């Protein structure tokens, strides 16, 4: 009994009032992941839109449905918003980067809010959420390289977005279960989905010696993101540990082949 | 739950799975230990497991499809890290000490490398799906253009080792027809070419099953592997958060199952 209590208390330190995502203010307010856009001479970003609400209806509706996209720059300042009409039960792949101006920088975040929230979501006290499929082209690649979102981060009320992430009481480690090697170069993009500014440490650990070989500190504003680059010349296996007060500091990982030419994207 | 990490298979590619003996966070698993690295596969009658090595704490190990000569051709190879030795043969998918985490799950790097050198990967894991469960999946991943090929890699794992046949049904979100019915086998990676099923850029692919569940992975390849893209769909339950999201998921599945029961295959 005492042991179970101790176990619960130990776990409670990490879980009590620290949900991955808190509830929006109203059941009609949709939720979105906070996705990452990249735009430059070599980057284009895309998103596949479809009306989630119409999938819950047997009849094809004639009502107009749309999404609102809100863009933030890397320091979390809103730079643009737009409304895109979509057809029920059809898909529309839009070039996200075409909405971004050069002055807005090379990368940032965006969120997608659906106008069509079916009644059954409200009946079940659930919130409709866009988890995404973002895709990227690099150096005029032929394929769009897909990755899905990984945080129910943000909601919207009366045209104003607000974040749903809560910070952890204690600093946590997120240990990316992936080997970094000298075969590839890497970029890690991490978003801040909490109300407050976050300090982040990226530590790179040699798996042979278990010693840190490099670390980098970043600060991320709310709604913003940071980009950490890593490459090694040594023939070693390296692992990444991200320390922060984010409940889950899952980065988007951009991987560029050096010995073989390729580009890969996945989330932690 | 004891977790497995499939070694992927796809045309013109080799599967690569990197298993890691360190948890993905510092607070869910307090005590880790040296583990056995295993490969498990089914011959259709019985599950077989072979220990291929040990993995120390904080180390990783790469399993390559081409190194698994002892696994019969076409069989689904499942890697795992176990505290105890797995039985050489078992009537049910082997089980061992549960060291799975939740935020996030303890995962491996599952990937494909093409013969032309392109790599693609995701962080994933697999476990036994319930027999006779059904699947509903909405996929926007198809890409079109010359020299592009789209594949579905449908991975099913069940507790029983049998190879039973089932079907995948391909629909469009906007239509009232079945565009293809494709046979699939349990405990396999079923590789299905999606290029000639009649979809175009505007179509949202709907994939359904009646009595088999699996992980739907979508791979697009340019020029037989010069570039690769790989991602899995979200289960429709993730269209909702909080509240009774599983009731919503059930409603959605019932709605689409009803639709599937009244529509016919396009000949």
Description:
The complex is a heterodimer of chains A (268) and B (267). Chain A is mostly beta strands. Chain A has 2 helices and 20 strands. Chain A has helices at residues 2-15, 119-123; strands at 31-32, 35-38, 43-50, 65-73, 78-86, 91-95, 107-114, 127-130, 134-138, 145-147, 154-157, 160-163, 167-175, 184-191, 198-206, 211-220, 225-230, 238-246, 252-257, 263-267. In chain A, strands 8-1-11-12 form a 4-stranded mixed beta sheet, with no helix packed on it. With 267 residues, chain B is mainly beta. In chain B, 7% of the residues lie in helices and 41% in strands. Chain B has one helix at residues 245-262, and strands at 5-6, 13-20, 35-42, 47-55, 60-64, 78-82, 89-90, 108-114, 119-124, 135-139, 148-155, 165-172, 177-185, 189-193, 205-209, 215-222, 227-232, 240-241, 264-265. In chain B, the strands form 4 sheets. Chain B has a 5-stranded antiparallel beta sheet with strand order 1-6-3-4-7, with no helix packed on it. In chain B, strands 10-15-12-13-19 form a 5-stranded mixed beta sheet, covered by helices on one side. The longest helix of chain B has 18 residues, at 245-262. The radius of gyration of chain B is 19 Å and the shape is globular. At the A-B interface, strand 6, strand 8, strand 10, strand 13 and strand 20 of A face strand 9, strand 16, strand 17, strand 18 and helix 1 of B.
Notable characteristics:
heterodimer; A: 268 residues; mainly beta; Hypothetical Protein Tm1070, Chain: A; 2 domains; 4-stranded mixed beta sheet; 4-stranded antiparallel beta sheet; 2 helices; 20 strands; globular; B: 267 residues; 5-stranded antiparallel beta sheet; 5-stranded mixed beta sheet; 1 helix; 19 strands; 7% helix; 41% strand
């Amino acid at each position: 009994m005492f042991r179970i209590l101790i176990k619960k208390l130990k776990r409670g330190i990490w879980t009590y009032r620290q949900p991955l995502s808190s509830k929006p203010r109203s059941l009609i307010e949709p939720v979105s992941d906070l996705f990452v856009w990249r735009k430059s001479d070599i980057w284009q970003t895309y998103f596949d839109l479809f009306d989630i609400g119409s999938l819950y209806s047997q009849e094809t509706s004639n009502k107009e449905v749309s999404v609102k996209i809100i863009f933030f720059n890397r320091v979390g300042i809103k730079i643009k918003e737009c409304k895109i009409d979509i057809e029920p039960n059809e898909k529309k792949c839009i070039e996200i980067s075409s909405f971004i101006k050069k002055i807005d920088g090379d990368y940032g975040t965006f969120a997608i809010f659906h106008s069509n929230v079916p009644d059954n979501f409200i009946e079940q006290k659930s919130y409709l959420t866009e988890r995404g499929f973002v895709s990227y082209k690099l150096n005029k690649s032929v394929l769009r390289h897909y990755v899905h979102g990984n945080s129910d981060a943000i909601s919207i009320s009366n045209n104003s977005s607000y974040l749903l992430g809560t910070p952890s009481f204690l600093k946590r480690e997120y240990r990316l279960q992936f080997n970094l090697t000298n075969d590839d170069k890497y970029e890690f993009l991490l978003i801040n989905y909490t109300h407050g500014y976050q300090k982040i440490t990226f530590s790179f650990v040699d798996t042979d010696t278990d010693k840190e070989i490099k670390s980098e500190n970043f600060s991320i504003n709310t709604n913003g993101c940071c980009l950490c680059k890593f490459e090694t010349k040594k023939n070693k296996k390296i692992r990444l540990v991200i320390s922060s007060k984010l409940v889950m500091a899952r980065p988007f990982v951009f991987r560029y082949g050096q010995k073989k030419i390729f580009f890969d994207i996945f989330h932690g | 739950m004891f977790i497995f990490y499939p070694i992927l298979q796809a045309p013109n590619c080799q599967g690569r799975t990197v298993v890691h003996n360190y948890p993905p966070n510092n607070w869910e698993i307090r005590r880790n230990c040296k583990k056995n690295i295993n490969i498990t596969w089914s011959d259709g009658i019985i599950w077989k497991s072979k220990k291929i090595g040990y993995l120390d704490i904080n180390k990783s190990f790469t399993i390559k499809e081409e190194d698994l000569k002892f696994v019969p051709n076409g069989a689904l190879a499942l890697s795992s890290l176990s505290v105890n030795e797995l039985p050489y043969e078992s009537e049910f998918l082997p089980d061992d000490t549960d060291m799975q985490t939740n935020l996030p799950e303890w995962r491996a790097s599952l990937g494909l490398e093409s013969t032309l050198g392109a790599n693609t990967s995701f962080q994933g894991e697999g476990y036994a799906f319930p027999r006779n469960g059904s699947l509903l999946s909405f996929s926007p991943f198809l890409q079109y253009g010359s020299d592009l090929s789209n594949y579905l890699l449908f991975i099913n794992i069940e507790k029983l080792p049998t190879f039973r046949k089932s079907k995948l049904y391909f629909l469009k979100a906007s239509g009232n027809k079945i565009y293809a019915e494709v046979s699939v086998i349990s405990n396999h990676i079923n590789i299905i070419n999606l290029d000639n099923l009649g979809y175009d850029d505007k179509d949202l692919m709907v994939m359904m099953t009646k009595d088999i569940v699996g992980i739907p992975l979508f791979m697009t390849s340019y020029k037989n592997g010069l570039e690769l893209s790989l991602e899995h769909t979200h289960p429709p339950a993730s269209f909702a958060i909080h509240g009774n999201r599983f009731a919503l998921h059930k409603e959605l599945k019932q709605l689409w199952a009803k639709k599937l029961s009244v529509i016919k295959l396009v000949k």
